[in-house]
Design goal:
This protein has about 230 residues and is an alpha+beta fold. It has five helices and ten strands, in the order βαββαβααββαββββ. The strands form two sheets. A six-stranded mixed β-sheet has the order 6-5-10-9-8-7. It is globular and about 55 Å long.
Length: about 230
């Protein structure tokens, strides 16, 4: 089910700017996680009165009980009043798939990829191989710069072998919705290490929607060869 949620935040009197900034940062990070898990689809800023802090969000959950759990997991929920409107499909919805458009890319496909890749980058940068591996499906095909492997265990082993201090900076180049619950991303990644030159690669990933959110089902790297003089 999808739900439109009108979220009005009221900051308690006497709250310091530092505390507001800290909870904003946590809220942004949690929003990315919920997007990666397929619960947060869109956010909008409606017309605001002076000093008003208000957001409209489009959420997906199995039912109202799951939605309540999702909303309560957001850091700003402690200061927020939420008004929930359940949504149902309209027979004339041009994006509903009833007119043969079901294979068109959804408007938020890049956001879904970016949410997963942001968490992947964070795990790589922090040298947390288990966190990176948790982003992959149980049957994920993983091809780094070594022979391919299948499943999260091989992913964890691969990243555990990488040098501490390695960072990943990615640029998403292309996205395609392959089918419902399956999105392809094509990107370039700069892997940086302090004691050697930056390695730039092409990366193709496919993310799949599973029971607990979006996970990487296919990951394949190819190297960029320097141009010949």
């Amino acid at each position: 089910m999808e739900f439109l949620v009108d979220m009005v935040t009221t900051v308690p009197d006497g709250t310091t700017d530092a505390k507001v900034d800290a909870i904003r940062t946590r809220e942004a990070a949690r929003s990315r996680e919920l997007a990666a898990d397929g619960h947060l689809l869109r956010l909008w800023r409606p017309p605001l009165d002076a000093g008003e802090w208000r957001t409209w969000g489009l959420f997906r959950a199995a039912d109202a009980t799951e939605l309540k759990s999702v909303l309560s997991s957001m850091p700003l929920h402690v200061w927020r009043h939420d008004t929930v409107t359940p949504l149902t499909a309209h027979p004339s919805d041009p994006g509903g798939g009833g007119d043969g458009l079901s294979n068109q890319a959804p408007a938020d496909e890049a956001d879904l990829l970016d949410a997963v890749l942001t968490r992947w980058k964070a795990g790589v940068d922090a040298h947390q191989p288990e966190d990176v591996a948790a982003l992959f499906t149980t049957d994920a095909i993983f091809q780094g710069l070594h022979p391919y492997t299948v499943g999260p265990a091989g992913v964890a082993d691969y990243y555990a072998a990488q040098p501490t201090g390695m960072t990943a900076a990615y640029t998403l180049r292309e996205t395609r919705a392959l089918s419902d619950g399956l999105v392809l991303g094509y990107l370039t990644v700069d892997f940086g290490v302090t004691d050697r030159a930056t390695l730039t690669v092409y990366l193709s990933v496919i993310i799949r929607q599973v029971a607990d959110g979006w996970r990487i089902a296919h990951y394949q790297v190819s190297r960029l060869e320097p141009p010949k003089e």
